[in-house]
User: What shape does this take?
Amino acid sequence: MAAIISIENLTIRFGPRVLAVDDFSLDIEEGEFVSIVGPSGCGKTTVLNQLTGLLPPQQGRISILGKRPHEGNPDLAYMLARDCLLPWRTALSNASYGMEIRGVPQAEARARELLAQVGLKGFEHHYPKALSHGMRQRCALARTFGLDSPILLMDEPFGALDAQTKLSLEDLLMQLWQEHRRTVVFITHDLAEAVALSDRVVVMSARPGRMIADVAIPLERPRSVRALQKSPEFHEIYAHVWEQLERGIQLSGQPTETVE
Ligand SMILES: Nc1ncnc2c1ncn2[C@@H]1O[C@H](COP(=O)(O)OP(=O)(O)OP(=O)(O)O)[C@@H](O)[C@H]1O
Ligand SMILES: [Mg+2]
Assistant: This one.
């Protein structure tokens, strides 16, 4: 099967002195859930930003559904740790906003349905300031899935949540992904999260970010992230990914911050 995202020999520099990403290649197939992990500053966000076309093209080749990255690509939806909800819009009109801009028919009805799916029924007319952080991320999930983009780019979307809320949002993401079947590129510092959610976990070295390992996660689907916490197979794979990450940290002479 042809890759929906193909990254070949990507090398990214910031100015003459900072080599952020070095010769990074990755193919992702349609419907795959791929996580990228690596020490802070290794270039994960930079790789994702290259896919969006927000950064000027660098050395290497990127193809997304056969096209070069370009700004405003409707094939991509982006979700961050910050919910980026518009404070003057209600949960419902935040969830439908992207769809309205892209001219998706029946945006409001669809947003209503998605809000119910993410557990926000009854909160449609609340403004972001009247929602908890977890609720705002639920709303952001509804907005992201509402966009109908075949590819979701998620940069630590649950990174700022407490452990319990994070687990429920991970399970929610699994349900939405299993139902709506998108291709997901997911960045996280949390290896347990990466293993629980993904088909593959890509491990990057400390800066300059290089591919250290591409680990297939053969855990059965559908998955419950909560139930996996008690699975010996899950813990075995987790330990293996940890070893790869430690190797990645040792391979670089650069100082790094710790990861969870
Ligand atoms: N706009 C920029 N200008 C200059 N340097 C940059 C820029 N963006 C990123 N960098 C540098 O590129 C490297 C990779 O940054 P990036 O944000 O991609 O790391 P990351 O892996 O996402 O880190 P974190 O896990 O902390 O989010 C860092 O050394 C950073 O200082
Ligand atoms: Mg980052």
